Amino acid sequence: MSVNGNIVEDEAHRLYRALRRIRRVEEVIAEIYSSDKIKSPVHLAIGQEHVSVSVCDCLEDGDWVGGSYRSHAMYLAKGGSLPGLMAEMYGKDTGCCRGKGGSMHIIDVAAGVMGSSAVVGSQVPVAAGYALAAKRAGEGRVVAVFLGDGATEEGCFYETLNFAALHSLPVLFVCENNGYAIHEPLAKRRARPGGICAVAEALGVPATRVDDGDLFRIRDAATSFVTRMRQGGGPALIEAVVYRWREHVGPNEDYDGGYRPLSEALPWMEADPVARVGALLDADVRRKVNEEVEAEITEAVRFAEESPVPRPEELYANVFA
User: Which of 58, 100, 87 is nearest to 219 (CA)?
Assistant: First the structure.
């Protein structure tokens, strides 16, 4: 059954559930944060969830994703354990990194989440390594790596693009360009603010820019690039222009901080992809999805709160020296 052009009801249901789930997980994290139960800094992707959902929707079980410190959306969109994520932020032994990684270092090998790193840009060359392994395995797997616009100014970004193009690696670079590296706007950091795609193309990596927050345009671009990669076509880059609704790090808004006004955010909030995709569904269907998501999150929070803290001897496990 078609609900909007080529978008069918089952498809809209799947995408809305993924979007709503990520949005509400992060809103609940923000609510809990002031209680000091969460023992980790948090970088929320509220307002940017649709990028991870659109890209991961065209990936398969054997594919891998990696990201930076704003990676809850990527982790959940790829199928990472929600109880494991919540317990990790509580610093519990049942967390996805046994309580040692926190919000900025999350991994789920079974789901194909190779991990996230708090060092800006460091996930990019690691993803190329996974892509090289995937190419050598010859099984048609691909890697998607998520990065912010600030990471495109790191040397490893240029080096990795060149290496990936040189070796025709199956890696999709997904730049979530929210216009700010912490508090510094793109226009103050780049002589040519729209040049991220141009950089990729100059190094032999095909690139496309989606500047209107359209989930379906991002997914179409990702699907095209991933299909090409599985056939040996090499790397590609998607620059998705987005807007983060909360502060760089923490659960609150920061429009009174003097570096960006609320008026800049309002058009993005009014065009919220979560609401736009939800509007494709019947109200009763949407309500049922919302109820299921709330129940799942409640159970994940209960799991985190009731889980044990790591034993003291765990301090010495999995360390090199």
Answer: 58
Tell me whether residue 177 is exposed, middle or buried, using C-beta atoms within 10 angstroms of its C-beta: 0 to 12, 13 to 18, 19 or more: buried
Per-residue tokens: 137: 């395995």
CATH code for position 14: 3.40.50.970
pLDDT at 1 over 50: no
∠ CA 101-137-226, nearest 5°, is 75
**Residues 139-171: pLDDT tens digits?**
999 999 999 999 999 999 999 999 999 999 999
**Which residues, listed in sequence order, are joined to residue 58 by a DSSP beta bridge?**
none
CB distance 53 to 15 below 8 Å:
yes
Gap between the Cα atoms of 80 and 55, Å rounded? 15
Between CA 246 and CA 248 the distance in angstroms is 7
Indicate the number of domains in the chain. Answer: 1
Nearest 10 degrees: CA dihedral of 108, 239, 59, 11? 110
Residue 31 to residue 218: CA distance in whole angstroms: 30
Residue 75 within a domain: yes
Number of C-alpha atoms within 13 angstroms, CB side, residue 121? 14
What domain range is 163 assigned to? 2-309
- Measured CA to CA, the distance from residue 56 to residue 71 in angstroms comes to 13
